[in-house]
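Lecture 7 notes: from sequence to structure.
We start with the chain below.
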Amino acid sequence: MSDLSALARSASSWPFQEAQNLLDKRLGGKVPDKGYVLFETGYGPSGLPHIGTFGEVVRTTMVRRAFHLLAPSIPTKLFAFSDDMDGLRKVPDNIPNQDMVRQHLGKPLTSIPDPFGTHESFGHHNNARLRAFLDEFGFEYEFQSASDWYKSGRFDAAILNVLAHHAQVLDIMLPTLGEERRQTYSPILPICPKTGRVLQVPVVETNATAGTIVYKDEDGTLVETLVTGGRCKMQWKADWAMRWVALGVDYEMSGKDLIPSLELASKIAKVLGGRPPMNLTYELFLDDQGQKISKSKGNGLSVEDWLKYAPQESLALFMYQKPKAAKRLYFDVIPRMVDDWLTYLDKFPAEDEAKRLDNPAWHIHAGHPPQEEAHLSFTILLNLASVCNAEDKAVLWGFIRRYCPTASPETAPILDTLAACAVAYYHDFIKPNKKYRPATPDEIQAFTDLATGLKALPANAASEEIQSVVYEIGKRPAFADLKTWFQACYEVLLGQSQGPRMGGFIELYGITETIALLDQAVAGTIGA
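Predicted structure tokens for the same chain:
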């Protein structure tokens, strides 16, 4: 065992804890009979990949990386499994040619023509979107299609196993269903040879020896069919269990809303002679009002929304933090996540190996976080964009180069990305809400004196020296406390209720420019 692997065993961050439990409690420290440890993420391809997809894959990847460090000699795989044999129940709102798709309701997604006209089926189109989505973020995975597994016969033995335990599976499922659904429920769903639709009809006879079922068709006739070769598929809870057993899935995450389904699938897996994978149940996201985020309601934000205003690493940090706690997923969390990510990057080089393993930057960057000499917080850049009313990141770079002459978009790519994101965030969220208020007589005197104090400083004064001057003004009897003074600075000078540490901001913005801003505040012309 390497020194780093030994340190990993004492790491307290949740991915290492999950990986440790997987290694010790499920595997007993040994390589599984199939030759590798299998991580899985599931995907329902009736819709497009979304922020929950990213969250599940990035979190699973973090556990997988931690496992690699703990047990480098044990191979692992990550399957991104698409349930593309599912029958389409409703037409998504965000696709073209909806009337055409509506004619194929009930059919497996891979049997429905592609409404976008780019792939051989709707399922293939959405699977391609999923792979492109995962590839964009550099995830390492193997794509798996349910249609391929069913139609190729690779699931034949597993579905025959379900057929052999049909009555026991019914005993698990029927008590959880309403009276009407009980009349038609079967864990094995035939695919109609005439219409191609996935049928939810009563199965009146099973023959495990012959590998057949007899079902009552929608027109009342009895039809016998083999369950193999893609002629049938599993109802999704039974399908989940069958897949775990057939593939030998060792680890899979799922949302809190799937806890009842997870419990049922786990019972079915045991009936089938397998064991359910280790599971981490993560909490769901909430909107700005504390309500559960819903794709149909559109009350959250998408991956594309986030990446317009912040780097993907900040989104990975959001997913890393407290996966078992409900979190608000809305635009106002973005600046904090960016600055927290930058803070973890800054801490990493000075930490010892043990502390690095518990630094979120290790998990976000696969153990190798990038480093840049030029560093400014996202909050500072947002306030710079605000006071400059920046239309382009080039405006911010004019100030950045003066602050750090060696920095450039080429030598500081993280900072360059942040500058562009800050301008976008400022225009969409800060600018529309900016509201300057006039200074009070006491504040006018304070701003006048602050300008005088800044004029006495050298042009290259450091932020701490500037901050001392700002502090001295705020200690006057005119202000109840320093918080009141800084609030006045933010509301009068920046037109907002919150703001940066003034010393650092003035150093970046420039003493001369800040004096001009203070003069405008005194004259009552700021924000005009």
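Points to note: The chain is about 50% helix and 10% strand. The chain has a mean pLDDT of 94.
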